[in-house]
Amino acid sequence: MPQEAIIVLGKRTWRRTAILGAVAGAAVTGLVLASLPASGALTVGAAATVGGFSYGQLQTQTVGAAGCGTNTAAEPSVHVSRGNLVGVASEEGLGGGSEYWRAHQVGGASGAGACQLAYSGQPNAVHGVGASGGDVDTAFAPALSSHGTYRIYVASLNLGSVNVATSDDDGATFSQTPVQGGLPLDDREWIAAYGADTSLLSYHDIATNNIDILRSDNGGQLYTQIAQAIPPTDDKASSNELGNLVIDHDNASPTPGGFWAYQSFVAPSTATGSEENEAFLAVSSDGGHTWTDKPIPCTTKFGKNGLAHNFPNVSVAPNGTLFYAVSNDSAVYVAKSTDHGNTWSCSAPVSTSKRAIFPWIVATSAGEDLVYYGTDGTGPSAVWSVYFAQNRTQSLTGWSNSKLMPVHQGDVCEGGISCSGGRQLFDDFGVDTDQSGWAHITYSHDAPDLGGSGSYTGYAVQQTGRPVGRPN
């Protein structure tokens, strides 16, 4: 195992291998990773089932092969393309690069399983060496590129920037773009795609703590900063925790040539406040060039522990309805808007465990799926599990909850550099649905087993139960 050093970016702490080479941060094109595995490809390990989901640890032993095995990545991202290509990325920590797995599969049958995803190698590094490997986020373009595929975007932090890897062949090869905007330091990037060739990239600018917005219109080859999500004179610009970035693919913007984009963040509800106790949504109708920050007033009633637990998360349904999930470190709540964030209503607690953190929601044409980490225990003996909540309407009531796989034992620390343990789950995980509405979840897990000091990335696909609808 390579030696590790500690890198601190803003509030966050990352593992960094000590083998940074001269290729770190350089543009690398045409990096060949893997083709989808042929029939009979190597399978390592096996999947298990719980609550109607097939789940297992993804393997990084054999590039190009499907199967369950072992990996050392954490804090993953999952998305499913409009062609039902499931893509999962996860990070090895700064200097270690990212990992990527993919397969065409639809849930709802025993043939869909956790071990079906093939390992594609490292899109943001070369042979395991590169400056990237910090926070990872992914996106699929919603329209076919000139290559006849839905372009894949994999964004990962470099030491002083962001690396965006793109693929036009379903993840067989990736090209890399080192993004220079926001230097010298940036933190926690998010990426979202529009059309065949356009994408937006957001991240925390460490110098100002504001949220910088960059845009590419050439398939991720070049990104240019076009805006900030919060006016620099606003008190929230220097006191906020950003969440994910999403784009509405299905509903026309009132701005010619524009599209709706949404950036989630939490901040103090007043200029003199110190607790990030209110959720906000930065809204753009012109493709990211200008933004209006809209408060979600009903989220201030969720307690005094703040809402950065961790992170705020927004999703837009195919009909344009917004669903926004937050945690106050005890419970998960959901807010809803049908008018682009102008007005909101909030739910009662959606979670059923005694403590619930790290929500991620996907809004679809026939309801919402939401995941969170939850526990009924306390202290070193607490066992945390992935919880799966589902609502088969576009209301804020009627949620059902299921406890799925256990993933962590002990305390969970969200304090970055101040943590002396409990960082195995890092800060987020994810859920998406395929075009038939079946859920796909990716999560972090203690390694080698519950209570272990390391982490690995797991994946789960819904085999039984009830699907919701297609995502935006």
Chain-wise SSE layout:
Blueprint: E1 4-9, E2 12-17, E3 31-32, E4 48-50, E5 53-57, E6 74-80, E7 85-91, E8 98-104, E9 118-121, E10 136-140, E11 152-157, E12 162-167, E13 173-179, E14 186-194, E15 198-205, E16 211-216, E17 224-228, E18 241-247, E19 261-267, E20 278-284, E21 292-296, E22 313-316, E23 322-327, E24 332-337, E25 345-346, E26 355-364, E27 367-375, E28 383-391, E29 400-409, E30 430-433, E31 439-447, E32 454-462
Antiparallel strand pairs: 1-2, 3-13, 4-5, 5-32, 6-7, 7-8, 8-9, 10-11, 11-12, 12-13, 14-15, 15-16, 16-17, 18-19, 19-20, 20-21, 22-23, 23-24, 24-25, 26-27, 27-28, 28-29, 30-31, 31-32
InterPro entries: Sialidase_sf
Protein name: Exo-alpha-sialidase
Organism: Gandjariella thermophila
